[in-house]
Amino acid sequence: MHKIFKIIAAVLSLFGIISLVRIIAAGDEAMETGGEAGLFEPMAYSAYVILGLVVAFVLFLFYKI
After folding, report:
1. Which string of DSSP letters, residue by residue, matches 10-51?
2. Distances (CA, A) of 16 to 7, 20, 39, 52, 59
3. Which residues contact 15 (CB under 8 A, 6 or more apart)?
4. Angstrom distance (rounded) from CA 42 to CA 48
5. How far, in Å, CA of 37 to CA of 10, rounded?
6. Sign of CA dihedral 38, 39, 44, 45
7. Which positions, given as ranges, span the membrane (predicted)?
């Protein structure tokens, strides 16, 4: 189970690095004016997915014990 969590953490870290590079490449003007339509919206959806995974993981461990 520890290996699975390490793989999931590596995938999420890779996604975070890719998002950071996209934000830096877009520049300050894109953030001040609302940015590209496809820049911030996928990050919001991914944040919801990560939050759901964390809640599911906590509930799984809570009821497993």
Report:
1. HHHHHHHHHHHHHHHHH-HHHHHTT--HHHHHHHHHHHHHHH
2. 14, 6, 13, 17, 25
3. 46
4. 10
5. 27
6. positive
7. 7-25, 45-63
Which residue has tokens 């793989």? 7
The predicted structure's pLDDT at residue 63: 83
Distance CA 46, CA 50 (A): 6
Helix (H, G, I), strand (E, B) or coil at 1: coil
Distances (CA, A) of 11 to 7, 17, 34: 6, 10, 27
Each residue's pLDDT tens digit, 5-63: 788 888 888 888 887 888 788 777 666 666 555 666 777 788 888 889 888 888 888 88
